[in-house]
Write a structure and sequence with these properties.
The complex is a heterodimer of chains A (264) and B (267). Chain A has 11 helices and no strands. Chain A has 264 residues and is mainly alpha-helical. In chain A, 76% of the residues lie in helices and 0% in strands. Chain A has one domain. The two termini of chain B are 33 Å apart. Chain B has one domain. Chain B is elongated, with a radius of gyration of 21 Å. Classes of the chains: A mainly alpha (264), B mainly alpha (267).
Chain lengths: 264, 267
């Protein structure tokens, strides 16, 4: 490695650019995250599986006889929540913890560009979310015998849902400097995603004005694109869903990038 | 000072030794409440806002899960809402605060203060009960307004709510003290809330549960909280209210015993 001597001479190091360096740094950062979070990720995966399966099974208790529509909405909404948990909810709290205990500055001093950091973190969030999605869907199918039909569109739907959520969390974690505020905001987001966004139940069951507010938020669209890829038939609003999600992802990535600053 | 006086009272023994007596206990309670309130004062407005928002929010969001909120469902959600609002304070906020105190070292500091530890515990109970009540009341008001439910308030409501709040806080405090590791406390409380919000017959009738789960809930506090509060808000919808009071009292006693056991132990 030619840049190694420079890294020794210059206290903060400099970042080597170019696709080859980018890929190398990316692989190293993914390994870094997986190694430093190994215990946390195991616990997280178990909690995710239990929460996903628990929600799929628990919703039946709300009804004497659960209607198929309700079961279908919960079963196709839980994957969205599983995908959001790591990137949008736990990610900012992790950054808040790092700020509290001082490892935040250390991580930022690493000689990788911020796009590498972001993509490596996104990969870890995907790895933390996808197993729970699969298990929750299998359990839902076994329990409710749902008319699920997985189309190839599930790949972009999952990728973009996770990306938008991760970038939102990334922006929250890095742009809000107070750890206490970060925790409050993420807890509020959990509440909104579970109860006040049409993720786990149809849009028609919430007041019209709340549905309109949700059009401007990403969660409704995450549910639309994911649900469209899991159920048969044509779906309106999928295209606009992708567009709104894309805009959220870009804006949040830009906010996070501004907060992080360019790595010299 | 003569050498003999130094021997009689070594300098590392604090001048104000631990005293006892009801007057001293009450004075300790008053100063501990001032101390505890002073520590959280800057967060109090936010805590109350979050409490009320969560309470009112939960009352609303359960309705969204149903295609049609029938009259009986509306009644169950409305009368379950105050119970739901009480649970997070006792089972999440209080253990969370204690876990944080343990991490920061404040916990050991408080124990080193020359006030009876029972007064310290009583001060925490009183403050958190006061935090819990506004959210609970607002949850009830919002739900009653949203679902247009007519309630029949009875005097039973006062002991019911107070016992529920005391039970949740005693058990939460006992749990936080009995579990040594703050990390484990965090996991346990989060898992508890999940189980409570989904799998407890608070906003829906117990008859919708599988029989085995329903019988488990007869012995857990959550279903019984809902029963006594519902009994104070309605007439003729719940039975075996006395049994529920007994179960709640037993849980309160168990929480107090766990607290007393940990607090009374010397380290």
């Amino acid at each position: 490695m030619t840049e190694a001597p420079a890294a020794i001479l210059v206290p903060h190091g400099t970042v080597a650019r170019g696709p080859r360096h980018w890929l190398h740094a990316y692989a190293v950062m993914v390994r870094w995250h997986l190694a430093s979070l190994r215990l946390w990720l195991v616990v997280l995966t178990i909690v995710q599986l239990l929460a996903g399966v628990g929600f799929v099974l628990g919703i039946a208790l709300f009804f004497s006889h659960i209607p198929t529509t309700a079961a279908l909405f919960v079963s196709t909404g839980v994957p969205v929540i599983n995908l959001l948990t790591v990137g949008m909810i736990l990610g900012p709290q992790l950054v808040a913890d790092q700020r509290s205990n001082g490892s935040y500055e250390y991580l930022r001093s690493m000689p990788v560009s911020r796009s590498v950091s972001a993509m490596a973190w996104y990969t870890v969030c995907l790895l933390g979310g996808v197993p729970a999605v699969v298990v929750a869907l299998v359990v839902a199918q076994l329990r409710y015998d749902l008319p699920l039909h997985v189309s190839p569109m599930i790949v972009p739907a999952v990728l973009l849902t996770s990306f938008a959520g991760t970038m939102l969390g990334y922006a929250l974690g890095h742009a809000i400097s107070s750890p206490m505020a970060t925790r409050m905001v993420t807890q509020l987001l959990v509440f909104v995603v579970f109860g006040f966004a049409p993720v786990l139940y149809p849009l028609s069951q919430m007041p019209r004005w709340l549905g309109a507010v949700n059009w401007w938020l990403p969660f409704r669209h995450m549910a639309v694109v994911t649900r469209a890829a899991l159920t048969p038939g044509a779906h309106a609003a999928v295209l606009s869903g992708y567009v709104v999600l894309g805009v959220w992802a870009i804006v949040c990535a830009a906010l996070a990038g501004r907060a992080l600053g360019r790595r010299p | 000072m003569t050498a003999g006086a130094v021997e009689a009272r070594p300098s590392h023994v604090p001048q104000s030794e631990l005293r006892s007596g009801i007057g001293y206990w009450l004075a300790s309670l008053a100063s501990m409440m001032r101390f505890d309130y002073g520590r959280v004062r800057q967060w109090v407005p936010m805590m109350i806002v979050i409490q009320t928002l969560m309470g009112a929010g939960m009352a609303l969001l359960y309705g969204f899960f149903y295609p049609h909120v029938t009259a009986i469902r509306a009644l169950y959600i409305t009368t379950g809402a105050p119970t739901l609002a009480l649970i997070p304070v006792g089972f999440v906020m209080l253990p969370g605060t204690v876990a944080e105190q343990k991490l920061e070292g404040t916990f050991d500091y408080i124990w080193s203060l020359p006030s009876p530890r029972s007064a310290q515990a009583a001060s925490t109970f009183t403050l958190f009960t006061l935090f819990a009540l506004p959210g609970s009341v607002l949850a009830l008001l919002v739900a009653a307004w949203r679902y247009d439910v007519h309630l029949a308030l009875s005097p039973l409501l006062v002991p019911a709510v107070l016992l529920c709040a005391l039970m949740a806080i005693t058990v939460g405090y006992g749990m936080a003290l009995a579990i040594a590791s703050p990390m484990v406390t965090n996991v346990v409380t989060n898992a508890l809330v999940f189980v409570v919000l989904l799998f407890s017959p608070i906003v829906y009738p117990a008859s919708q549960l599988p029989a085995w789960l329903a019988s488990v809930h007869y012995f857990l506090p959550f279903y019984n909280m809902a029963v006594v509060i519902r009994a104070g808000l309605t007439t003729g919808i719940v039975a075996h209210v006395a049994t529920s009071f007994v179960v709640l009292a037993a849980w309160t006693a168990a929480g107090a015993a766990a607290t007393a056991w940990v607090v009374g132990r010397r380290r």
